[in-house]
Design brief:
Length: 1496
């Protein structure tokens, strides 16, 4: 029961943590009934195996201990036997001594005669020895000469006819060849000249003459003549060989003859002496033979006596042998007991520990089975947390278990060492993954974005014929079939989020038996199944979402590198570069320790096995005892080595730790780089690429003698170079984010920035009214210095949230209001000095937090300063576009990828580079991908790889179906680099796309190319692209030059207006360079073909057609026409006509192209909003937009604001619960229409009044929203308490509450609103209150238009009411309006016709209640609160107001929405005529509009 309960609770824990896993890391995992069954099956399997293993080991230890105990008992018996044998041995010794005396006397006589013979033998031996000396002397002399002679003969044997012919062919032979042949002629008694020599060489038997030469009888004259030749230093084989190898052989022969002759003559006297000595020896031996015969007779008599003695001694020997054997057994026993005495204690401890393990096996194996069944997909932090909970449950259920870890329970240290040698990282997380891979019942599917598992498996199974397949290969099933059939391991690489259905039998191990053979059906074939077969799957996807139907078939294992694991890997790279001797020693020690540990284990197993298998008396088995002795000696030596190795390892590790700071920095930066993929799918960087870059910097950084200087230099260089290399592949908008992420993560890793500070930065200010109420804003601060209530509220919340740092801030601001006012109102609060103590007390990040709360729109500038203060100014500046540098870093097997943005075209830059590298013309093949272009591209790549040309594939994002082929092509290049010409390059261009192959991105060099930013940069590019010939080619040059500049300025301006958000354009359009070229062409055409410039035609064709063709919003069409009218009008031709109020921008007087470029160069870099026709406040809007975008991206990059896998934050749980409880308490009940006021749904005739119908529709929508909110709040509270599972929807809601966002479920059921959660709730409750009053108190004097779901419906209801009252067709009416100077509270009665509305804001302008007309906005006041507006339905045909601005009204500040059939955005409500003395164009260019609500 306990086990069953345990398994159930384990499953529940995993379910709960799976929900948390998604909440914190956005990673999917599924727990299914199959997971539970797998847990049970695994438990049974591993419990049985471990029980057998532990029992077997314990039994062997027990047997070994028993043998030692038996030996001790035998020793006691042997000592008794030896004591009893002593008297018997003494008597045998006396008997033997008596017989020995008799034999000795007889032997003495025989010995006397033998002595005489021995004297004669000695004399004969002396004579024989002297003969031998003489003979050996002769032989020695001969031995000296013979090798030279034999080598000469061998050399002669190598001479062939061809060599002799070559020598004979010399008419004028080399000097030493001729010299050698003269010596040969002398020996052969021939005249020593070349002519005679050639005759000799011509003889057929020349070689035989030399070989058979009578060396023993050489004429002394010949030797004398040869003396000068022999002594000549040039007459040596090595010297002769330089001129002729054949002559060298003859030289060797001549020299051998001379040497042999000298030796032969020197031994003639010795031969005579030898003859005489041999004759003397023969005489001596004859006499000795007679004496020996007499001696033999004596010896035969003595032999009889000796036999008698032998029998007597045998009896004594037997007794002594028995005593010796007993003594030896005692010695062996001593060896056995002494040798294994130390082991006895350890064996007893091991046996005892194994006994306890058997007891704890029930709980330990249950936990281990849980790890194998459930923990694969989780990160290391989650695994530890889950195991901790399981262990607690196990202890509570009284199930015996140890202090469990998976490695302690199942790992074999020797095996782990071998895995690490094969490339598995040594951290615990990776080792656990190794166990999960090898011990699970299901085949492993490894999430392996960095390729570590892949490399480990490749190394581990390299010697076992590992087969590697991919689903994109045509014959992958055939390879898999062979692996199954022949028992080879198969690795399936780089899968996506789905698996091929044909793999299902393999994954489910659907093996069956037929005719005694195990088979598996693969496709339509029954394949013999080998038990040696192994199947492994890897994916490079960093966060794949595998559906439950896949998860139940495989063991999903998260191999994603950990911060600590990567740090250890990078440390190895650092040490290899900085102290290779240290790393070599460490590697050698790892291998040595692994080998020694394995040998030690084998020796112990051998000893235990020998003891267990020993039969009979163990002490009689000398071989066994000796083997045990050797084993013990070896193990003792190994133990000494291991102890020394461990000591050395500690010393090495201590030294290595000094370099860890570099590895830590590298690890921190890698995870920043890896997280960039969350920002854009194209920002993919492989670990191999990163490590290669890291090692490259280690090698290239300047060397320093002082370690600290070297480490500081390395840290700086690695940080800078990685920043630069990655930066060139990032869009401009993300480069500051990247630099900031590096800076802040370095500080987080160094504990300079706390988790709480970071979390507060991510969440930002959240006003709690109950807290702010306790510290109201000082009147002086708001009245005198213009500090808003909102800004003050943020100050209060900052002090409340982080009192330890910002305690006393509110009081300080009150006391030093004038000093703090500059921070609230300054344009540079990020650089201004903080008042009082705060400048010194706050560190860089805390100052950033202060700006985040007080001046959020300046956060971009503040972040740039933080980066500058933390890691240096270098990181605040974007590296320039450097295509040459990217090319220099590239190799032929890695593609170069242009990541495009709208308006960017890198083709010109590529063509310039190609020209500089000699690849112009046919050397660069550009292919624009599209339908049918894939095969053409493949052929082009294949050909270019051979020829070394370049291929550029444009718009890869448009050829999604072909990208798998591209991935295979790139992989083939990298696997077979020798087949690719070193000058080949593959260039790819693509917009950001989720479908772009990750391996291609990871292994390629990425480059971004963006349109220039700013008016000056845009104009510079435009006029750089125009050639002088083209610029001067018009027949009406002055007019054309003015118009061409106006066109270019208009193009730059509409592009740059996008940065101001909705004030610039409702929708940010992607105008291209081609639009500018088309407009330029039109301008040229009209200038050339028309006598007078058709200004109106030009305006229409350029604004409405050329550029307007991309414009979908009707109000943007109005804006673009208005903007162009400023530049395309007759005033353009006047010299004093300016494009901006400051007079800096104008069409310069006609001149040459250089003059135009010079004028553009002196324009400001920063563009003021006035140039665009916008109010200066637009820069604040732009800054707010930039700041919010950057913060949102930072939150995304930090994993959605999670704690990075550190486990759920209890503070967050409490915070979310508090929000949920407060909301629940304030939630209203659904509206009951039966409680309505009689006037609310009053009927006119049979129909309810139009406003009543509108109210009914609104209340239905509000009731739906209330129901959704109530239900989700209840579920969220229960999920936090653990009463229900935290579903995906609830997880999202939880995160939204943490980050003050409105949950998607509420947004879907609700209305458009951009407010943060706290403000949204107050706004919601305000709407509920207004609607309630309307329902129960009747129609209102004025209506809060912003409070409606569908304000357009209210406009329709107002028109319908007027239509019914005055019997006018509703479709002939439009909404007119009169503006009042009153607020809603001042309105007590509704108008006679129409309705009063309030709650609107004006953006881009303001309504002056004193002048009752529109005026420009006040400084720093982005939104102006509008007074009550009287909506008056009027007949559209008769309504022609003058001096008004037709001001569009939108629901939210985004303005953009879905395009409706009317041509308007769904965000658009109505256009209202607002009085104004200024022209419509002024307000249109201002981007002026009204909004139903603000975003705060």
């Amino acid at each position: 029961d306990s086990l069953s309960n345990m398994c159930n609770k384990m499953h529940r824990v995993v379910e709960q943590e799976t929900a948390n896993y998604f909440t914190e890391l956005k990673r999917f995992n599924y727990t299914t009934p199959t997971s539970y069954l797998e847990l049970v099956k695994l438990y049974v399997d591993i419990w049985k195996k471990q029980q057998e293993k532990i029992s077997s080991n314990e039994r062997r230890y027990r047997i070994g201990l028993d043998k030692l105990r038996e030996t001790e008992e035998i020793v006691a018996k042997l000592e008794g036997q030896l004591t009893e044998m002593q008297p018997v041995l003494a008597k045998a010794a006396v008997d033997t001594a008596t017989l020995l005396q008799q034999v000795t006397a007889d032997q003495k006589d025989a010995d006397a005669q033998a002595a005489v013979v021995e004297v004669d033998v000695a004399e004969a031996n002396k004579v024989a020895a002297s003969v031998k000396i003489i003979k050996d002397d002769c032989q020695a002399d001969l031995d000296e000469a013979m090798p030279a002679y034999e080598s000469a003969v061998k050399a002669l044997a190598t001479l062939d006819k061809k060599s002799v012919q070559e020598m004979k062919a010399f008419n004028n032979p080399p000097e030493m060849v001729k010299f050698t042949l003269e010596a040969v002629c002398i020996l052969l008694d021939v005249k020593p000249d070349w002519g005679e020599a050639k005759k000799l060489l011509s003889q057929m038997d020349f070689m035989d003459i030399l070989k058979n030469y009578d060396k023993d009888n050489i004429n002394p004259k010949f030797i004398k003549k040869l003396d000068k030749y022999y002594k000549d230093p040039r007459f040596l084989p090595d010297e002769i060989k330089k001129q002729s190898s054949a002559a060298m052989c003859l030289c060797m022969w001549v020299r051998a003859m001379v040497v042999y002759d000298k030796v032969a003559k020197s031994i003639e006297p010795k031969k005579a002496a030898l003859k005489e000595a041999e004759d003397s020896l023969a005489e001596t031996l004859s006499q000795l033979s007679k004496k020996k015969k007499a001696l033999q007779e004596v010896l035969d008599r003595v032999a009889g006596l000796q036999r008698t003695l032998k029998n007597t001694e045998q009896k004594k020997a037997d007794l002594e042998a028995q005593a010796v054997r007993a003594q030896k057994q005692l010695e062996r026993a001593g060896q056995l007991i002494g040798g294994l005495g130390g082991e006895k204690i350890r064996w007893m401890e091991s046996a005892s520990a194994l006994g306890k393990s058997l007891v704890n096996l029930v709980g330990d194996m249950c936990l281990a089975a849980g790890c194998l069944a459930y923990l694969g997909p989780f990160t290391s932090q989650f695994r530890r947390k889950i195991v901790k909970q399981w262990l607690h449950i196990c202890q509570n259920l009284k199930i015996p278990c140890s202090d469990f870890t998976l490695l302690n329970a199942l790992a074999v240290p020797v095996v782990l060492r071998s895995w690490q040698i094969d490339g598995l990282p040594a951290d615990d997380f990776s080792c656990e993954n190794g166990l999960l891979t090898t011990m699970g019942r299901r085949w492993p599917l490894m999430i392996d974005p960095q390729g570590q598992a892949n490399r480990w498996l490749r190394n581990m199974y390299a010697s076992k014929n590992l087969q590697i397949i991919k689903l994109t290969e045509k014959d992958f099933l055939r390879t898999l079939e062979n692996g199954i059939r022949y028992g080879a391991p198969v690795l399936l690489e780089n899968i996506g989020q789905e698996l091929d259905p044909s793999l299902e039998p393999v994954l489910l191990k659907q093996v069956f038996k037929r005719s005694g053979q195990m088979l598996l059906r693969l496709g339509d074939t029954d394949v013999p199944y080998s038990d040696e077969f192994k199947f492994m799957i890897t994916t490079k996807l960093a966060n794949p979402h595998y559906m439950p139907e896949i998860c139940i078939k495989v063991t999903v294992i998260n191999f994603t590198v950990t911060m600590k694991g990567l740090e250890d890997q990078l440390l190895v790279d650092v040490i290899k570069n900085e102290r290779p001797d240290l790393e070599e020693r460490k590697d050698a020690l790892v291998v040595s320790i692994a080998a020694d540990s394995r040998q030690l284990l084998e020796i112990e197993e051998q000893i235990l096995s020998m003891l267990a298998n020993a039969s009979g008396n163990i002490l009689d088995d000398e071989e066994l005892i000796n083997a045990l002795g050797r084993s013990k000696k070896t193990s003792a030596a190994i133990n000494i080595r291991l102890n020394e190795a461990e000591t050395t390892t500690q010393e090495i590790n201590s030294t290595r730790e000094g370099y860890r700071v570099v590895a830590t920095r590298g690890s921190v930066i890698y995870f920043v780089v890896a997280n960039l993929a969350l920002v854009d799918p194209m920002y993919q960087y492989s670990l191999q690429y990163y490590k290669k870059l890291f090692v490259q910097r280690l090698q290239k950084t300047e060397k320093k003698e002082v370690l600290k200087e070297r480490l500081d230099l390395l840290i700086t260089d690695v940080t800078r170079s990685v920043f630069m290399n990655v930066c060139r592949g990032l869009f401009e908008k993300d480069k500051l984010l990247y630099a900031f992420s590096i800076a802040v993560n370095i500080n987080i890793a160094s504990a300079i920035v706390s988790d709480k500070e970071w979390q507060l930065f991510l969440v930002g200010p959240v006003i709690d009214a109950s807290v702010v109420e306790k510290k109201p804003i000082p009147s002086a601060l708001s009245a005198s210095y213009g500090v808003s209530d909102k800004s003050w509220g943020y100050v209060v919340m900052l002090e409340h949230e982080f009192g330890s740092i910002f305690g006393g801030l509110c009081e300080d601001i009150k006391l030093k209001a004038s000093s703090w006012a500059s921070i609230f109102n300054s344009d540079t609060p990020h650089t201004d000095k903080l008042p009082g103590k705060w400048e010194m007390n706050l560190n860089a990040f805390q100052r950033l937090l202060l700006i985040r709360f007080l001046r959020e729109e300046k956060i971009v500038f503040a972040i740039r300063r933080y980066v500058d203060d933390t890691i240096g100014q270098y990181f605040t500046e974007s590296p320039p576009f450097d295509l040459e540098g990217a090319y220099s870093d590239s190799v032929c097997t890695s593609p170069l990828i242009f990541i495009l943005s709208p308006g960017a075209d890198p083709t010109d830059y590529l063509l310039q580079l190609a020209e500089s590298k000699g690849k112009e013309g046919s050397g660069l093949r550009i292919i624009s991908l599209g339908q049918g272009q894939g095969p053409i591209a493949e052929r082009a790549i294949e050909m270019a790889q051979k020829t070394g040309d370049w291929v550029c594939l444009q718009n890869c994002h448009l050829a999604v179906s072909w990208l798998a082929k591209l991935e295979l092509t790139v992989e083939k290049m990298q696997n077979e680099p020798d087949t690719v010409n070193s000058t080949f390059r593959l260039w790819l261009t693509s917009m950001p796309s989720q479908n772009f192959p990750v391996p291609v991105l990871q292994n390629g060099i990425k480059v971004t190319n963006e349109p220039p930013k700013g008016l000056r940069a845009n104009l510079t590019r435009t006029f750089q692209d125009i050639s002088p010939e083209e610029y001067e080619s018009s027949t009406k040059s002055p007019i054309y030059k003015k118009l061409s500049f106006a066109t270019a300025f208009f193009n730059a301006l509409i592009l740059e207006r996008r940065k101001f958000g909705a004030v610039g354009w409702n929708i940010p359009y992607d105008w291209m360079n081609s639009d500018l070229k088309a407009a330029m062409t039109q301008v040229r055409m009209y200038v050339e073909e028309q006598a007078l410039i058709p200004w109106e035609t030009l305006n229409v064709s350029v604004s409405d057609i050329t550029y307007g063709g991309r414009v979908t919003d009707i109000w943007d069409k109005r804006s673009i026409s208005s903007i162009l009218r400023k530049y395309f009008n007759p005033s353009l031709m006047e010299e004093d006509y300016k494009f901006s109020e400051d007079g800096l921008y104008f069409a310069p007087p006609p001149g040459d192209l250089n003059a135009m470029r010079e004028y553009i160069r002196q324009l400001p870099i920063e563009d003021r909003p006035e140039v665009f026709g916008l109010h200066p406040n637009a820069s604040i809007t732009f800054q707010q937009k930039e700041s919010r975008s950057l913060i949102a991206t930072i939150v995304t990059c930090s994993g959605g604001g999670s704690s990075g896998g550190k486990g759920p934050d209890p503070a967050n749980d409490a915070k979310v619960m508090e929000i949920a409880v407060k909301m629940s308490e304030r939630m209203p009940k659904v509206y009951d229409l039966r409680a309505a006021h009689p006037e609310t749904f009053k009927k006119v005739g049979d129909a309810v009044i139009s406003l009543g119908v509108f109210l009914t529709q609104e209340l239905i929508r509000f009731n739906g929203l209330i129901e959704v909110m109530v239900a989700t709040l209840v579920q969220l509270r229960r999920a936090i308490k653990g009463e229900v599972v935290m579903s995906g929807e609830l997880e999202v809601m939880y995160n939204c509450f943490v980050f003050q966002k409105v949950p998607p479920a509420w947004e879907e059921a609700g209305y458009p609103c951009l407010k943060p959660l706290a403000s949204w709730v107050e706004d919601f409750l305000g709407r509920i209150d207004f609607m309630h009053k309307w329902l129960v108190m009747g129609p209102r004097p004025s209506y809060w238009l912003s409070g409606f779901f569908f304000p357009q419906g209210f406009m329709t209801a107002v028109k319908q009411t007027y239509s019914r009252d005055f019997k006018i067709a509703v479709d002939t009416l439009r909404i007119g309006c009169d503006l009042t100077d009153k607020d809603a509270k001042d309105i007590t009665h509704g108008p006679v016709t129409g309705a009063y509305i309030y709650g609107l804001y004006m953006e881009g302008g303001r309504f002056d209640r004193d002048k009752m007309r529109m005026e420009d906005s006040l400084p720093r006041q982005l939104l102006d609160i509008m007074p009550c507006i009287w909506l008056k339905p009027v007949i559209a045909a008769d309504y022609k107001p003058i001096s008004v601005y037709d001001c569009p009204l939108y629901k939210t500040s985004i303005r953009a929405g879905t395009l409706s059939t009317t041509g308007h955005s769904t965000n658009f409500v109505v256009a209202l005529p607002v009085p104004s003395l200024r022209s419509q164009d002024h307000w249109i260019r201002r981007g002026c509009a009204m909004l139903c609500m603000n975003d705060e």
